[in-house]
């Protein structure tokens, strides 16, 4: 979360707590400036502190919560058992969607205290907090088109781990990534009616595909955009009179903006083009605004090359801070601002 928010990890003192209640107490007593956690009464209490601001929630930031990890020996000698485990996982997922009463009863019998589920409503309320990945979703993720996306997410996780000052004990080379993700177990479920859901899950917002479905914003929504995170770079610079994106700006976008866009959903990137208005150049408002918009378009075009949907990029221009001004002052406006926003 710190990396997405563009906060240098060296500027942060992190407190490890045994549970969310302890974290909330430290925040509420102002020992900590911020906290991160899951939906609960403790988090709600912290968010309701008079001067609190919720910077980001799961509508913008996603993490994968549940994965099946198998040892190398089991993969070699116990593949039928591993397949049975996968099948049972998807069968249970289907039950929570299509037979929630039966699923809630089973969870209550096993341990109401541990699961927090005693009724069907308890189950549906709990599932509303998490996006459920059905067997069909998993088949999509494990398809040939989307496996490279999974590899990139793994590499991004390694980068996040390092940015937090942690050591990656066994970093993987790109060539080794296919050995980590075995799609065979999920692919074998294709066509299994007993595992395939016929209804949408309680929370159907799971997303991990190469081509995201992004809805374009209406003009009214674009007027109500709210900044949700400070990026590692808030602007890129342009040469005077040019709309060509220089190499250093390209590098900033690749290193500071693209990872955040790939790590979040439901967010948009606002790109505000700007252009200086130096004295004695024969410029007018129309010419200056045209250059400003071309700079915003240059940023947009560069990001699109990396697979960012065009509907996720919101373009606009801002007026220069001065007109017919000195060269040095005009140079301050030769830029394009970028910010992560939600409608």
Name the overall outline: globular
At the third CATH level, what is the topology name of the largest domain? 60s Ribosomal Protein L30, Chain: A
- CATH homologous superfamily (4th level) name of the largest domain: OmpA-like domain
Domain count: the total is 4
- Label the CATH architecture of the largest domain: 2-Layer Sandwich
Radius of gyration: 24 Å
Q: Which ranges are low-confidence, i.e. pLDDT below 50, for 5 or more consecutive residues?
A: none
Strands, count: 5
Order of helices and strands: HHHHHHHHHHEEHEHEHE
End-to-end gap? 20 Å
Structural class: alpha+beta
As a percent range, the share of helical residues equals 40-55%
Number of helices: 13
User: What CATH first level of the largest domain would be assigned?
Assistant: Alpha Beta
* Mean pLDDT over the residues: 85
Question: Into which percentage range does the β-strand content fall?
Answer: 5-15%
Q: Main beta sheet: strand number and arrangement?
A: 5 strands, mixed
Folded structure, characterized:
By secondary structure, the chain is an alpha+beta fold. The chain has four domains: 9-47, no CATH class; 65-143 and 183-206, no CATH class; 146-179, no CATH class; 219-342, OmpA-like domain (60s Ribosomal Protein L30, Chain: A, 2-Layer Sandwich). It is built from 13 helices and five strands. The protein has helices spanning 20-28, 41-47, 72-77, 79-98, 100-115, 120-127, 135-141, 147-163, 184-187, 219-223, 247-263, 285-304, 327-331; strands at 226-229, 235-237, 268-274, 313-317, 335-342. Strands 1, 2, 3, 4 and 5 form a five-stranded mixed beta sheet that branches. Helix 1 runs parallel beside helix 2 (41-47), helix 4 (79-98) crosses helix 5 (100-115) and helix 5 crosses helix 6 (120-127). The chain is globular and about 80 Å long.
